[in-house]
Amino acid sequence: MADVQPTFTCFDDAGEFCMRNGGTVVHGLIPRPHAWVELDGKVWQGGVIEGKRSFFALVLDEFYALYKPLKTSRYTPKLLLSLWKQHNYPGPWRAEYRAQCTDAQTILGEVRTAAVVEIRVYETGLGDTLA
């Protein structure tokens, strides 16, 4: 089991992962606002593993069993990029999710790592490639 520390930037992380790899970005309540990417039967989330910013995957069904999302909103890469540019931030864009984002701890939810099946390490972010 990997020791995953939170990035406190799950909406940025999900957007970045989607722009690099494809998939569907999901914003949801677990019960607090959180963001992840669904791709090829896995759910990808950002984290810090061994001091490096990384993305880790859980099997889709295991993610939903562990986190039990109450509500979700799904975004294709094209829609994600359009909304990100329109609002100038990576989400959440739904008022009911935003209202619960009072600080980074609230946005994060809880990192659960027992079911991690894959890890990808990225040294740098996308920077201004979204501009």
Give a structural overview.
By secondary structure, the protein is of the alpha+beta class. The protein has one domain (4-123). Helix content is 31%, strand content 32%. The chain has 5 helices and 7 strands; from the N terminus they run βαββββαβαααβ. It has helices at 10-21, 60-67, 77-87, 95-98, 104-108; strands spanning 4-5, 24-29, 33-39, 42-49, 52-59, 71-75, 116-121. Strands 1, 2, 3, 4, 5, 6 and 7 form a 7-stranded antiparallel beta sheet that branches. A hairpin with a 3-residue loop joins β2 and β3. Mean pLDDT is 81; it is low at 104-111 and 126-131.
Question: Layout of SSEs?
Answer:
Blueprint lengths: L3 E2 L4 H12 L2 E6 L3 E7 L2 E8 L2 E8 H8 L3 E5 L1 H11 L7 H4 L5 H5 L7 E6 L10
Antiparallel strand pairs: 1-4, 2-3, 2-6, 3-4, 4-5, 5-7
**What value does the average pLDDT take?**
81
Number of helices: 5
Shape: globular
**What structural category characterises the helix and strand content?**
alpha+beta
How many domains, as an integer? 1
**Separation of the first and last Cα atoms:** 37 Å
Q: Rg from C-alpha positions?
A: 13 Å
